[in-house]
Amino acid sequence: MKRSVFSKIIVIIAMILTLGFVSCKNEITDDFEIDSYSQSIIDSYSNVGKEHNTMLNDFFSTFDVNPRTILDDDLYNKRFEEYFGNDVKVLKFTGFSSRSNSQSDIGIENAIVYVNKIDSLLDSESISTEDFIREVTLIEVEAIANLSDDELQPFMCYAEVAKASCEFWNDNVGDISPRASLGKKIKACIASDALGALFGATATAALIVMEPLLYSIVTANPPALPIMVSLGAVICSAASSAEGYRTGTNVYAIPESKVLSSLKSKKY
User: Fold this and answer.
1) Do 196 and 184 touch, CB atoms closer than 8 A?
2) Domain range for residue 21?
3) Which residues contact 52 (CB under 8 A, 6 or more apart)?
4) What is the C-alpha to C-alpha distance for residues 170 and 163, in angstroms, rounded to an integer?
5) Other beta carbons less than 10 A from residue 24's beta carbon
6) pLDDT per position as a tens digit, 178-215
7) 180 lies in a domain?
8) Count of domains in the chain?
9) How far is 253 from 181, CA to CA, in rounded Å?
10) Which residue, among 240, 242, 238, has the nearest Cα to 262 in the 3D structure?
11) Mean pLDDT of the chain
12) Residue 19 domain-assigned (yes or no)
């Protein structure tokens, strides 16, 4: 029963509400024009990426950690725990096939097609920041036309964090900014950030259904649901980003306690 109600709520409002902020129109090259409906969806999710970058800046500035600085593991781990909690689940991503039985993948099977398209851009040897953002936007437009509403929210969280992450790490890693092409370190960070948003969105949706207080809030106030899911995606993407930067590998992190406490403390 809970899952049925949850699904109906997501279908009605997941596309058009996010963190409750007004967004600006995304830039795209002159030879491609986005239809107004797709642009409105992209705009509505752009703040997920912006809030991801804001949280990363807060993480590094709060603990006086510069992304350019190489920290010893003990110091970095201590600061990571202070910020995201001591119960963060960190998993190395080895592909969707190895996660075929994962609860977090239920409901996003079709979205994975578009996730893989974006992921393949990171395999390019010479893609630039500008081209990466442009190509991700083109994939978003395609996904908006083909995905169901409940599949679209986690995908859009993934895509918008990928674009925002590209800009954040391009500005904070290396000696040349903007770079002509994305380096290996930046690509690993982008992959982790975006995966954190994708799995963070689906994990948060599951937490809402299982947590009585949160479920009662979205039942009484349906517009709170996509706000919660997007906030969870932001937190998980930032945690994944911080961990991905430290390890230089594709990982995703779910700081469950921080997500729950943030959702419960927010006014809806």
Assistant:
1) no
2) 2-25+40-265
3) 161, 164, 165, 168, 193, 197, 234, 237, 238, 241
4) 11
5) 9
6) 444 566 777 888 888 999 999 999 999 999 999 999 99
7) yes
8) 1
9) 27
10) 238
11) 80
12) yes
